[in-house]
């Protein structure tokens, strides 16, 4: 079934065509349906990679003849694409799945599918099988490319289907995509992870690192730019190791340079980067590529070298600070964001203070902060963890307060500046835009401004966002 593509397995074009034939057969099954096309509802939990995966599921569903709804009660099929990174995410998904027993009772023919990282966990799949009888189909990330085949079997043979066998993973090109409307787009450049941080479930549910061919990535970016996308994010669990499994020598810095040569006015972003692989060459590429957004998300997780070693992060506090200094030397106005975990097993009060001091030294523009959440099957889940939850929560609140003050000060420094921003949407408060460094700007104006780059004068700020108005207007 699989053909060798360099050192990474690639799904053959013949196999993708076979999946599209299943889509055509399903469309034919629906052709005599009265009252219009069947409806599908997709719900995504977790990271941008899950969003990109859902876009491919929607692409398959569209090929099957489905239209889309946001209402589970209206849907003929519901797909929940899940996240397993934290316990809270799993509880949310199980709560949502539990609530669907009511929609299925009202609509007995409704089909419920659960996929994604959480579905790949053996204990979760068993829970869904045993306790959530309303779920019809469960499959993991590696089986996504075979969704039409699995769904066809569900429609024609009935019976519940569980496909959660873990493989090393492969690359599947040619899957149709239905994206959310707007000027932003996600482009996966690689899948999987080889790092095995001791707290992280991702390598166990998404398989080993595998890179898409650069020509396929660049072709997708060209199509997106031609379609009007102006803010394109390159995705991978660790984009810095892109290309290690490819013959030809293109690394992530080279990919960024190649994407920068594509004609058009657009911004290139990427996430996520592992500090151990963040290279001087990548920093140079960002500095020299005019389309590379001046924003770097570089998770540090802990300010203590001992804790970093226990996390299996493979860098030190000092090494992280050296990389930040090197990045800022090349791009002085870089917007730097990060992830941090509070209360990792064995972390002492003194080691938490090291994390606070790193935050104060680096002065991040924003942080994504988490209290440690044990994930079954990872080494950290069985580590001694003597610190009481209440003490961890107190540390967490202190950390958030420190970062909020820094964010407020950083944002206040924008007042009076004129920045070229992309107006990317609207909400109940008015238009929204993003600075090149990905800071949220709120402004007033007509809907005709959406999708345009504008020079915006920053007139106000708080710790979460900026406010502004079009320059000269």
Summarize this structure briefly.
By secondary structure, the protein is α/β, with parallel strands linked by helices.
Task: Please explain how this structure is put together.
It is a single chain. The protein has 473 residues and is α/β, with parallel strands linked by helices. The chain has three domains: 2-170, Methylthiotransferase, N-terminal domain (Rossmann fold); 178-412, pyruvate-formate lyase- activating enzyme (Alpha-Beta Horseshoe), CATH 3.80.30; 418-470, Nucleic acid-binding proteins (OB fold (Dihydrolipoamide Acetyltransferase, E2P), Beta Barrel), CATH 2.40.50.140. Helices cover 37% and strands 22% of the residues. The protein is built from 14 helices and 21 strands. The strands form six sheets. It has a six-stranded parallel beta sheet, sandwiched between helices. Strands 17-18-19-21-20 form a five-stranded mixed barrel. Strands 9-12-13 form a three-stranded parallel beta sheet, with helices on both faces. Strand 1 (2-5) and strand 2 (8-11) form a beta hairpin. The longest helix is centred in the C-terminal third of the chain and has 24 residues, at 389-412. The relative contact order is 0.08.
